[in-house]
Design goal:
Length: about 220
């Protein structure tokens, strides 16, 4: 949590590549107090000093991309996920039932958030291993952009990269997290829409289409 002084410094360095101390410090802020907050940003590796000027570090530049120039606060960003569609010879999908919030007791494809710096294909393979203990040949199918509404307010917002798994086989079972979720096989029509993580019933339907669109936008209402 940054103070308004630190927000001021970050915004100044977002708008200007470099600034001197006198250019960063607000006139009505006492010098020792300002230096305390400036040093806090330096210790947090968000700001660096060179040749008597200050600039954003690499970590600071990454943070700046999430800041609102109007408010100086971090903007909530849509989540980027990978999800894996996997079907067996009996026409059953591989699903997971979640044991943690925000999806406790709800059902979805194996999925998870993309880790910074990782490829979506690597993340899809990781999610399949961690959620179901499987390895497979993965093929990218398309993206689904989901906005979930509850009481006229956006409850969740995510971009889901969907992969299809073929030639699946058991993987290292030590990667499984039974405290997080459990996997099971079932036909789509045996599960009610309300049992799904919002958006994933529709994603499962799309995954059944041989020529799934490369990008689909969904707006779902959450009861």
């Amino acid at each position: 949590m940054t103070s308004w002084i630190q927000n001021h410094i970050l915004l100044e360095l977002t708008r200007h590549p470099t600034r001197r101390y006198s250019q960063l410090k607000p006139r009505d802020v006492e010098g020792n107090l300002f230096l305390y907050h400036l040093n806090g940003l330096i210790k947090a590796d968000l700001v660096e000093k060179a040749d008597n000027v200050y600039r954003l570090s690499i970590k600071g530049v990454q943070l700046a991309g999430t800041l609102s120039l109007e408010t100086g606060k971090t903007r909530q960003q849509p989540k980027i996920l990978t999800a894996v569609s996997c079907m067996n010879e009996q026409g059953e999908h591989l699903f997971v039932r979640w044991h943690r919030q925000p999806n406790t007791d709800l059902i979805s494809f194996p999925h998870g958030m993309v880790h910074f710096g990782e490829t979506i294909a690597d993340m899809a393979a990781l999610e399949l291993a961690e959620k179901a203990g499987l390895a497979a040949e993965l093929t990218y199918r398309g993206d689904v952009y989901v906005r979930g509404w509850r009481d006229n307010v956006i409850d969740r917002h995510m971009l889901v990269h969907v992969f299809e798994a073929r030639d699946f086989r058991p993987d290292d079972q030590s990667k499984l997290r039974p405290d997080v979720c459990e996997s099971f096989w079932a036909k789509l029509d045996t599960i009610q829409v309300g049992q799904f993580v919002p958006g994933f019933y529709e994603i499962a339907q799309l995954a059944l289409v041989p020529d799934m669109p490369r990008l689909t936008e969904l707006s779902v209402t959450i009861e």
